[in-house]
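the two lines:
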Amino acid sequence: MARNRDVPLVGKEPLEGAYLLLTFRHPEVAREGRAGQFVMIKAGTSPEPLLRRPFSIMDVDARRETFTLFLKTVGPGSRALADLRPGETAACLGPLGRPFTAPSPGVEPLLVAGGYGIAPFHLFSLELVARGVRPRLFYGGRGAGDLQVRSPFATMGVPVALSTDDGTLGHHGRVTEPLEAYIDASPNAARCALYACGPEAMLHAVARVGERRGLRAQVSLDPWMGCGIGTCLGCVVPIQGAEESRPRFRCACTEGPVFDARDVVWRGEGVSLARRARQAEVGA
Amino acid sequence: MSTALAGAAPLAVEVAGLRLKNPLIAASGTFGYGVEYEGILDLSLLGGVVSKGLYLEARDGCGVPRIVETPAGLLNAIGLQGVGVRAYVRDVLPRLLPFDTAVIVNVCGDTVEEYAEVTRILEDAPRVDAVEINISCPNVKKGGMAFGGDPRLTAEVVGAVRRVTHRPVIPKLSPNVADIALFARVCAEAGADALSCINTVLGLAVDVERRRPRLAFGTGGLSGPAIRPIAVRMAWQAARAVKIPVIGIGGIASAEDALEFMIVGCPAVQVGTANFVDPGVYERILAGFAAYVARHGLGHLSEVVGSLQMPGAGGPEATPESGG
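prediction for all of em together
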């Protein structure tokens, strides 16, 4: 159950560039937080910016009652968090939202992260490895500086395929290219499940990869969020199950942020993949 | 007018026949249906909760993006997405039964008849303590502000709702008018028991790169600390214009913010956007009230209501209306 708390900062690890890791004490998030879930958090009481911000839970430590966020300092809200000193508190509500669902036995999880979207896959990999499942990570960004969280995956024994738009690290191109190459070369191609977190265009591309190969894909959407608990109705996304004649707005905070990629009505498409497939069946 | 409940806690008030354990009410559209806060916040801490606006049928609301932050404020165009009044009565009201708080339902309509019909359906429902009439939403094409910006239509809607309910009727006024005192008087004459002042301030935020509005709907309603001085001024004007109580709304996030409205004449207030910022806001405000009562040696918080000492004759020209 989500709890609203003033949480003390207990750890701060600067990474390269504008990135850092922040660790706070929050017993409920530490105990109950699952990969794909998030917290709403804000440092200070300034009305600028006004609202808390959603952050994916990157790691939890139930024994120490702490959780860790992956932060990129981009504006005043993230700057205020980055400027916290150990012992200072932030206002934090969590854990919130629906987590990723682990794959069925024998299915290989393929994780696709775009830059900042790496955060939930750190926790997801820990959860999967603890269950004896070894995921594989496809990690893309604009440049090498955007691929900041790599060593924990090596430690966990999770194979990582890196890619950058500018070719400064790993494959020179889109993250979905090594993903497709891996699936196509795999003798186990029908026994893969896709998980994606990152920019919307990347999520859409992963949804298409899944559709073309008949693979399930779970995507973590990241719309503007006001409250995190389904009251402001600001973060809605159009969702359409196979049986629904028209899309309906659902709150990403309470019914997501993780959705089945087939149920999402992607920008410019007007209908979900699930509904289109059902219509094709009926029409056939 | 409101009265302090004799012998009750020093925060309890009665507003339009509604007995509230304290003057804090969660504002419509910022608190869902209340049940969303289960486990996060004890609803029994609140004087009352106002539901998200309800029409006869469920509504999808506006496209996305629906919210954007502006300096010290939130601009929204949600468009009254909601479950519809029958689903509310069936699915939500029973879940509010365990909580010791007043339940106020925000009633919407595309037509005068729809406002009345929604109210009629609520009349048979248990657990509803009052109805708030939404004649001030800026984010719908029909109804909403279209009613609240026209004195004749305002009177029609309030009168129609008044005729079908025995419960307190509380029109929620729009700030997007030149003379809110006029609308306050129109509502009082049409049978309103109290007023809620104010709804959001009509605004527009522009994406300068794309040269398009930042909200899908185009314009939106501004809320949060940015609008508080406007809201306090309008609540003050409304309170001076009518004898029925005025519930103050607009950018309240602390006891001091709430006290501004109380001092200008509001016996109760609604907390809106601050619900999104901090579910712990009610505990903080209540603690602030207790400190204020102690600091000022008050027997009851409501002693501050209407205690504003405005500069008088010879001072700045600060009284736009003569009031009624």
